[in-house]
Amino acid sequence: MLEIKNLHVKLEEEDKVILKGVDLTVEAGKVHAIMGPNGSGKSTLSYVLAGRDGYEVTAGSATLDGEELLEMEPEERAAAGLFLAFQYPVEIPGVGNMTFMRTALNAQRKARGQEEMSAGDFLKLVREKAKALKIDADMMKRPVNVGFSGGEKKRNEILQMAILEPRMCILDETDSGLDVDALKLVSDGVNALRDAGRGFLVITHYQRLLDHIRPDVVHIMANGRIVKTGGPELALEVEKNGYADILAAEEA
Amino acid sequence: MAEALPQDDALAARIAGLSFPSEGWQAPARFDALARLTAMGLPKRRDEYWRYTDPASFTSAEPVPASTLDDGDEGMVFEAIDRLKLVFVDGVFDAAASDPLALENVEIGLLSEAQSDIHWARDLYGVLEARGQVPVKRPFAALNTAFATEGVLIRVTGYVPRPIALIYIHSSDTSDAVLHHCIRVESGADVTILENGPAAARFTKVMEVDVAEGGRFHHIRAQGRDHDRRASTHIFARVAGKGLFKSFTLTANGVMTRNEAVIELVGDEAVAHVAGAAVGDGKFHHDDTVFVTHEGEACESRQVFKKVLKNGATGVFQGKILVKPGAQKTDGYQISQSLLLDEDSVFLAKPELEIYADDVKCSHGSTSGAIDETGLFYLRSRGVPLKAAQSLLVLAFLAEAIQEIENEEIAEDIRQRLENWLARHEH
User: Fold this and answer.
1) Which of A151, A200, B173, B270 could join B65 via S-S bond, C-beta 3.0 to 4.6 A?
2) Which superkingdom is the protein from (chain B) (predicted)?
3) Domain residue extents for chain A
């Protein structure tokens, strides 16, 4: 489904190369995790896939169901089925969550040639999704992320994901800033969205998120590359020994 | 009036074409105003409150010709609102196009027809304008009091069930309209005044609003369909104890617009909110000059002004809060912000606080910035197309000003206007 080949990326403003040939394939129905030390390029990978400004792709490709993502505008990537859950969800004063999500959903539907959803149907959809995720639907009445706690912000990301029903979800350090209870709530939300047609790429520093969201495949990223790929046991190994052993083995 | 004729040639030329109604109960106020105008003269660029705005098109002998309407524009605002309509064409009252001047709990008359010497407006006409000349000179307001040819005189005695709408129509390319409205809101009364429409090639307007104890005055104005607009407007308000004054202005388009608001909170626990949302593209100069005086105790004032500027448009804000000795427990708030959609646009702000009481809360802030790129990316990453995302952020920026409109139906009308404007002026 998501296929990243030999992806090289540098920062636009400075001559700093961040990704140095990333190869990664996420199949439909699978959960892949990327772990790695700070500065390894994990967040850059998520931003580049979502289309954030400030990065220059110098080589390689990233396709979703065969379509080249890197040539699309961010909104086109969303309409194609890509979703990035932000590490730091953005506060947007003055824009209601409900307006935002309805505008987003209808824009995606329009881009896909589907009919727009009425306000009534949308409200029903939101209530249903919120209930399934055990999220208070009142959150949708507030301005986007304004005054939300860290946990509320992350839950809002998951609710957006549930409403937009993307094919490919990228979670960028969704566990950061969460206490144990919030972590469980958010993870339950993600697990509820797992199905055979949907792929996940879960980016995290820590094993603890992967206790809740069980990955099928774990990749270790370091210095702009995937240096090791394995099963869930790889995450446990990192938890126990840190990255040093893996990186040393890689260099050797 | 020969003896009152000014020595100043520019001023003489400016008023040469205007008529001076020298009889009736307004005459003393008009002579007073002319004397004030003569003493202060017309403003010049070097005057403290005209440094950011060139008064030339207001001081010129003849108005700059202005086309009447742009065909690309949408219909009139407030059309769906149930209101009493008073129509002025190039500053002349159009009785045929207006509703009968009758509405529950309100007396409505015309300045040109109010002849009686015991008219209630005698205590108001030019009175608040004269008070508002200190400490800042406002020559065009004095000119207005002296030379106004028409206006409405509204006395509100109770709750008025429908808004009273002043609708201006511009039909001559060279019209130079001078209107002066007086509104007295009696104790406990409540009224909403709407204003919209292009008015004239050059429009000089004064509205004096006297709110008695516990009275409530709501004012929503839309300036937008006249792209060549050159308008200098003043609102002078005096608010007694527990009275409420609320004024919101939407400004879109127009070459040169100066809106002044001079508000005195004279009784305890009086409230005044004055707000504006302005959007300008290209040849657009918009100036909000506001002066709020706190005299009573425990009064609250809010100034909320937001401007969205692009393609070299200019926005000006000069706002002052003066807290007089004894005006304890004052709660004053002032915010002026601009969203600059490109690097050619300019926002000039001069916030001022002058406080002579020790137990007050006054806050003010002024900012200028571009659209938040992080927010933009966040919206787009969810599938909102670039232009729609920009419009969402622009409307969000203006929201705090629009929130000052209490009537939700009217607020929605204003919001829709802004959305349509943004769609027509996509970035």
Assistant:
1) B173
2) Bacteria
3) 2-251
